[in-house]
Specification:
Elements lengths: L1 H23 L1 H7 L1 H29 L5 E6 L19 H10 L3 E6 L1 E9 L2 E10 L3 H4 L4 E4 L4 H5 L4 E4 L1 H8 L8 E4 L2 E9 L14 E5 H9 L6 E6 L5 H16 L9 E5 H44 L1 H9 L4 H37 L8 H27 L3 H6 L2
Parallel strand pairs: 4-9, 6-8
Antiparallel strand pairs: 1-10, 1-11, 2-10, 3-4, 3-7, 5-8, 6-9, 7-8
């Protein structure tokens, strides 16, 4: 029991001595830890911003709906020239009906017929996006209504002049007034407002989803665009597991209907929302890792700084070390003392750096659309790396101090 008590007393003395040494040169200790502070702050900030960017991308993609495929029109090669996606409306009404009837994985689908138009109501006017859709559009996009109802199949078949307003459009045209039952004029054609969409904010690609009006696609084609075909059809698949097989079935069906023999001659393209989300997350993760790695280099520089200062400290305290050894201190005690000093400097830098990194993340979140996310893993990483840097770069100076010859140390001037 006495031996154990003596060991604990000796170790307590070692810790006390290490703390006193650091406090004796407080300014030098702070400057020594500066590299660690900058490194940890940069790593925590970069990882938090990267996590926030990834979460923002995932939120934007998920705002488009779950398990969504979008079929776009594109022109086949003509005399060596191939037009881009959506440049030509090659999807017909018969294609749309065939996709609904013949592909088992389709849960809901809707064409999208888009145009920009000046809208007038309540003595105000506003330029916005008008999108012609089918009744299943809100189901595909997971878009709820805050008031009113969605138009029905009768409205689609009859090309009824009914409309659903996005929150921004409703605010610009009607202010605090309830728009349900009011009339809006789209290119001088009156439409009855039957519903008000809930706010969705910015979507994938940065467009404001709240700044749009939804009307039946038949009405849009007949009264606004004059088109007879579709530039895109949006499809909700029954499950995530059925995404790939449904995409393949859609491609096969459209090739049969359009009489194309190979993928190179397709006059359509299919965008898989899940693939886009996975790709963007992978890219964001890679960029975050790259930036964090670059920022982590300052941790190495900080560790080298700690090692250099510890070597200088040993040089300055050579007589003190010799005196302690002469009075009975063991080489292990000397090694532990200087190792504790190095680790304490590194951990203190880690704590300060973590606080600065969180502050930087909060500032970025306040000044930009990205909301950085500081996770428990990044906090653990900050402390873990700080500790390892202290141990690694403090080991050599501590070992060197422990190997000093007490006679030579006492003679040192």
């Amino acid at each position: 029991m006495s031996a154990s008590r003596s060991r604990w007393r000796r170790q307590g003395l070692i810790v006390t001595t290490a703390v006193r040494a650091l406090r004796r040169n407080a300014m030098r200790s702070l400057l020594t830890a500066l590299g660690i502070i900058i490194g940890v702050a940069a790593v925590v900030g970069m990882v938090a911003i990267g996590n926030g960017a990834r979460a923002s991308i995932e939120e934007s993609v998920s705002a488009l709906g779950q398990n969504v495929l979008t079929v776009f029109s594109s022109n086949r090669g003509n005399n060596g020239v191939r037009a881009g996606t959506g440049s030509m409306a090659s999807l017909t009404l018969a294609d749309y009906r065939a996709l609904s009837a013949e592909v088992p994985g389709v849960a809901a689908l809707s064409p999208e017929v888009s145009t920009n138009a000046q809208v007038v109501a309540n003595g105000r006017n506003w330029s916005t996006s008008v999108v012609g859709v089918a009744t299943g559009y809100t189901q595909i996009r997971d878009w709820q209504l805050s008031a009113g109802t969605m138009f029905d199949e009768h409205d689609v078949n009859a090309s009824s002049k009914v409309a659903l307003l996005g929150p921004k459009v409703a605010h610009e045209l009607f202010g605090p007034l309830n728009p349900i039952g009011q009339s809006v004029r789209i290119r001088n054609t009156p439409f009855l407002v039957v519903g008000l969409l809930e706010s969705k904010g910015s979507g994938f690609g940065g467009g404001d989803q709240d700044d749009r009006i939804l009307i039946p696609y038949t009405t849009a084609m007949r009264r606004l665009t004059g088109e007879r075909n579709f530039r895109s059809v949006t499809i909700r698949v029954t499950s995530a597991e059925a995404m790939d097989s449904t995409q393949s079935q859609i491609a096969t069906l459209l090739r049969q209907r359009h009489r194309t023999v190979s993928r190179e001659n397709d006059d359509f393209s299919i965008m898989n929302q899940k693939e886009i989300a996975d790709t963007m997350s992978t890219v964001t993760g890679a960029i975050t890792l790259l930036l964090a790695s670059i920022a982590g280099m300052s941790l190495v520089v900080g560790g080298i700084g700690i090692m250099n200062i510890m070597l200088v400290s040993i040089k300055e305290r050579t007589r003190e070390i010799g005196l302690r050894i002469a009075l009975g201190a063991r080489p292990g005690d000397i090694r532990l003392q200087f190792l504790l000093e190095a680790v304490a400097l590194s951990l203190a830098g880690g704590v300060i750096g973590l606080a600065i990194g969180v502050g930087i993340s909060s500032a970025v979140g306040a000044l930009s659309p990205i909301k950085p996310v500081v996770t428990a893993s990044s906090v653990a990483l900050a402390f873990g790396v700080s500790f390892l840097v202290g141990v690694f770069f403090g080991s050599y100076p501590a070992t060197r101090a422990a190997k000093l010859d007490p006679i030579d140390a006492l003679r040192y001037e």
